[in-house]
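Hi there,

I know you've been waiting on this one. I reran it after we fixed the sequence typo, so this is the corrected version. Both the input and the resulting structure follow.
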Amino acid sequence: MPAGDVLILGAGPVGCTLALALQGSRQRVRLVEARPAALPAFRPIALSHASRLILERVGAWGAFPATPIASIHVSQAGAFGRTRMDAADAGVAALGYVTQYADLVAALRARVSVERDAGGSFDEARLTVHAEGTAGESRERQYAHDAVVARIAAEPASQGMAYERFTAEGPLALLPLAGGWALVWSARPERAAALAQTAPGDFLAQLQRAFGDRAGRFTAVHERSRATLALRVRASRVEGREVFIGNAAQTLHPVAGQGLNLGLRDAWDLAQTLHAAVDPGGTQALARFAAQRRLDAVATIGVTELLARGFLGTHPLARAARGAVLTSLDLLPAARRFFARRMIFGPSALP
């Protein structure tokens, strides 16, 4: 098959967003599903306000259900310190939106042509973009916990508040989704395995003890699964006429929901670079893209690592330090606004 100017490998949210953002550009784009795989039955995704803006610009926002997050309540189990961030702190209508991965992918793929890779070869493109998931040659660091993901029903119904609770084993997040909750619960691998298999009543009782009653009474659990967590980062996102974006460049811990949002910013910035490029795989264009993405990636990975690893353990001094950080955020509106906007937009005011 004839090569286009830009060959995108991977038709997940990041690859599809890049293809849509390049529509109307000078580049001829081919989007290939490099590793066809069944979509997970339940995989909640938290989209930031910046991601909403990107999806609006490529014409996909509104094509899938999304529950807004008006506020985020952050606390640590068994110790003082809490903070609450509201959409008003960041000057946005909502801090983020919760949807299902499969719904987002379906909405994006309906707007772009996707080729299936049947195992054949593709002629050389001027630029190959890897957006197919975790790539080889990545540095990997395993976390000391796995994640249990589930849909939770509760009384009363969720009303737009998200919760992030740091426990000794790892973060526990509850995200509002269509009146219920999307749960991402980090625990030691052996306990995560047990939680994924235990009877529903016992699971709900353990969740209630771990989380408390801020979200009401948990009444049912559906679609449980377990995921192994690791940080994977490529040393370079550009190699010759190849560029790596999204999970192909970095795979993050789900705490604070930054992974996909960082990937969508990768796709948007790459599209802006390629719109103006005479040679999409040229050294200058790709070097400019890599330099533009460096700060956002380093800062987002750093914050995610701090939350995933630095908020663990039961040492009294560590708990006191974490409590002081949370209390400071709660007492200082300017610091809270800076943190909220940094998590939404990356290092700049606009995506």
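Quick highlight: The two ends are 35 Å apart (CA to CA).

Best,
R. S.
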